[in-house]
Amino acid sequence: MKRLISIHSLYLLLTVAFFAACSDDKEDNPQPATPAIEWATGQSSPTFETSGGTASVHFSSTTDWTAEVDQDWCSVSPASGTAGENCAVTVSATPNETTDERNATLIVRSGTVTERMTIVQKQKDALTVTSNRIEVPADGGNATVEVQANIDFTYEIDEAAAAWLTEANSRALTTTQLHFTVAPNEAAEKREGKIVIRSGELSETVTVYQDGFTPQLVLTQNEYTVSSEGETVTIEVRSNVDYEMKLPAGVEWISEANSRALSTYTHRIQVAPNEDYDFRTAKIAFVSEEMGLTDTVTITQVQLDAILVAQPQYTVAPEGGTLEFAVNTNVDFAVETSADWIRQAPRSRALEEVLLSFIVDANTGTEDREATITLTAENVKQVIKVNQPVNQEPSFLRISFTGSAFTAPLMAGTFFTEATIAWGDGQSEAYKEKATHTYGNEGTYTVTIESKGANSFAMDDLTGVDEIDLSDF
User: pLDDT at position 25, please?
Assistant: First the structure.
């Protein structure tokens, strides 16, 4: 059975229409709307002064709604309404004669959905700040405290934070905005300071939190491979803390080069020639004991008469072809393959870097297969694995569309090699990315893409596409 994706059906499923109006006349809707309430953009919770007053709250509702408050010192009007995008209620508060701040909740319900908003009324002679918490990054900056008060007030910074949290101007008491400067935090630990604003027995406390800096000790490269002849290795370090480079004890074939340093974070390591037939390894540690940070560089020096390849394993396509890789060596070596389906191509005589080329036959069997290539010299041997998956049958992607031009989709796959496009009007061509075909007349055509190894595709534009057939893909 074919698997068909109808683009028209897809568009229909993705289209959702929503209309609502806050009026007495409602349009007929064959399907009931899903209850939902959303506060208007920028709508803030009502905050009343001690004397009380009124405040408007705006919202949208997809169905008829009701509104109420849970305290008797405030009220809401109207208590209900119809669905719409511009619904509103008026919240009223009586004077607060107490010295305590009080709160109530505005509750709006739409069907099974309930939304709540907190109502705040300040105590008599209120002193408030817009936020009791300010966060500052480690590199410092400015901190602004906005004060809302109907009485004179003063402020003070707690003694523990006075060194890094300071007043930014001298007119703070004549404005509702207090400005402070926060110095950079050069410690790894977070810190906090308090600003206390007072008027008589009333006070508000603002806490300033500042992040500590993140200690870093990062090496741009952690591993170096050095030839048996030796060389100078340059190690680059990125760090914002003090650190120490520690050479391994008892290792005499590496040392810090006596050369002009490129920068504080650049280290040159001299690696002596290796006269042995075994490779050798040493580790150099970069340590910040104060911050508990450590990073390590590993230097590996190959033995005399070494054979080096880029990687020990390769995977080739089922169709076969040519396998090439570079071999770094300072000796003549022999090449041996473990299977007759992979054969060495003619090679050059270069000794320092040799490009080996092998011919790989197509895998016509029913299972994946593996072989090895062995490079041997007098005292060393290097083995490379070659994996080849089973050959794949061609796949077909068919796309029906209506129009006068069509751009082929992007084909992809781990072993995707080639494809052919039949445009549906008797013309065909080899696949290439973003291939476009123009038809003589506008009409309905079926484009067929035959490929090997492709297991996915992507289309930027579905305009005009009627059907995608994946049954043979």
Answer: 44
